[in-house]
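Supplementary notes for students who missed Thursday's class. We covered one full example, reproduced here. Read the sequence, then the structure, then the short commentary at the end.
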Amino acid sequence: MIDKLILISCGLVAIGVGGLGYEYSQGRSLSDLTNQAAVSETKSVNMSNVQNLSFDMSVGDLHITPSNGNQLVVSAHGEMSKQLLEKMKLTVVKKGNSVSVSFQRHARFGIGLFLPSITSVDVDVEMPAKNYQSIAVDAGTADVSLGRTHATSTTIHDGTGDVHLSDVHSDLSVSTGTGDITMQASQLGQHTNLKAGTGDIEVTLQQVPKNVHYALQSGTGSIRWLGQRMNSKTNAIIGKGTNTFQATTGTGDITVQQG
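Structure (token representation):
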């Protein structure tokens, strides 16, 4: 695992150095790349008959919360390098019963994508509170928070960043390459799958699970289920085991607790 992380880190450094060289060849200095520019953009769309939502974010922390209206409102705000901002585009597209939101680069890459210290952007989403068929999030380098939502299925993939879930009523599939996963809920849903490459997984439940088949695994770290220390690879059934809960991390702790 450590060797793999070293290789990934070296690869990112090499890409960054290459990108910096390219920018210099285009007549841009490091100060051009690090000069900050304000980000302030808001878009909205009517959510009548919408059942599926997708979010595609290359940078920027994503915060999704419910609202009482019938409009999906997306606001990007903060600061990032001018060079990176020139390449970014916020889009909200409605097609049939689906809406897709993206905050992505629309031009060739530059060193800005590999200097997260010069990017401080939040993307706030106010989503009408109703039952959805699916919610999908694909984030490159960003924290993701999702709260008080209802959907048949929710999928979150985060390359580098933490994922925070609060009162999400849905089948869940969540993965992050490097980052922690925290989840707060009244009880476990029918199917929950949490996976972190490098990071802790912490789940806090109001009700003790009484009908679940759970599988927990940590390559390097401790596992605790409702206060009890477990083996690094644990598989057990409570009740009939109708619901399923899986939590896996390569390097990190797994904690399931009542609170």
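Commentary. The two ends are 33 Å apart (CA to CA). Residues 180-259 form one domain. If anything here is unclear, bring it to office hours.
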